[in-house]
Specification:
This protein is α/β, with parallel strands linked by helices and 243 residues long. The protein has 2 domains: 119 residues, Response regulator (Rossmann fold); 106 residues, Winged helix-like DNA-binding domain superfamily/Winged helix DNA-binding domain (Arc Repressor Mutant, subunit A, Orthogonal Bundle). A hairpin with a 3-residue loop joins strand 12 and strand 13. InterPro entries: CheY-like_superfamily, OmpR/PhoB-type_DNA-bd, Sig_transdc_resp-reg_C-effctor, Sig_transdc_resp-reg_receiver, WalR-like, WH-like_DNA-bd_sf. This is Phosphate regulon transcriptional regulatory protein PhoB.
Length: 243
């Protein structure tokens, strides 16, 4: 049986110190057709990032030389937007919030099913490689989008507000770019799940809500009451530039 992938030969870094789990994850990533490098320490992972470009980071949290979130923090501070799939035994709501705030794109708690893991990897790689928008006839290109104080530059994966950089995760950036490409157009949670997360599973509605809330917080000036991402009650969300 041939492995099927969305992004053939994606270059993936696995940071996991549990030998048995690392072997299982390695096997399934390679089955999907990916190139995988595995290390067991934070320091080794950060050194590799100075030498290579990776398409995905699969990251354990409890590592021998520190918290895996420290890797994510450092990468985001360096403007590195490699998507991060966090594997962890910590399943409290606060732990998940900490991960999202650090820039984690997806979170799987141990123990997890192989099918769920494979699906998460496929969805992340699909999401960052391209956003499917054919059904709403939206064109994505690398042209900078200017909305007064807000500037979105897809080619550089940059967002600035009032001339200050706004640090977004890969998912947050994709969602913002998608909404901003059709200002005023209202999208339901199901539509956003389909176009941004590439899933039709309504059980992930909370993921849409939490990502929207983080975007609102990051795109808000203390002295300005305007919200670029607005809720249309009973319908969904829209991007609203200054009037």
């Amino acid at each position: 049986m041939e492995p099927q992938t969305i992004n053939p030969m994606a270059n993936i870094l696995l940071v996991e110190d549990d030998e048995d789990l690392a072997e299982l994850v390695l096997m399934h990533l390679k089955f999907q057709g990916h190139k995988v490098t595995r290390v067991a320490r934070c320091g080794d992972a950060l050194k590799l990032y100075q030498q290579q470009v990776f398409d995905l980071l699969v990251l354990d949290r409890g590592l021998p030389d520190g918290d895996g979130l420290d890797i994510c923090h450092q990468l985001r501070q360096q403007k590195n937007w490699t998507p991060v799939l966090m594997l962890t035994a910590r399943d409290s709501e606060m732990d998940k919030v900490d991960g999202l705030e650090a820039g984690v794109d997806a979170y799987i708690t141990k123990p997890f099913s192989v099918l769920e893991f494979q699906a998460r990897v496929r969805n992340i790689l699909r999401r960052v490689s391209q956003v499917s928008v054919s059904s709403v006839d939206v064109e994505f290109n690398n042209t900078a989008m200017n909305f007064g104080l807000l500037k979105i530059t897809p080619e550089l994966h940059q967002v600035s507000l009032d001339d200050k950089d706004v640090v977004l995760t890969a998912t947050e950036f994709t969602l913002l770019k998608f909404l901003a490409s059709r200002p005023g157009r209202v999208y339901s949670k199901d539509e956003l799940l389909g176009h941004v997360w590439n899933t039709e599973h309504s059980g992930y509605h909370h993921t849409v809500c939490s990502t929207i809330n983080r975007l609102r917080t990051k795109l808000k000036l203390p002295s300005d009451e305007h919200h670029f991402i607005q809720t249309v009650w009973g319908v969904g969300y829209k991007f609203q530039p200054y009037q």
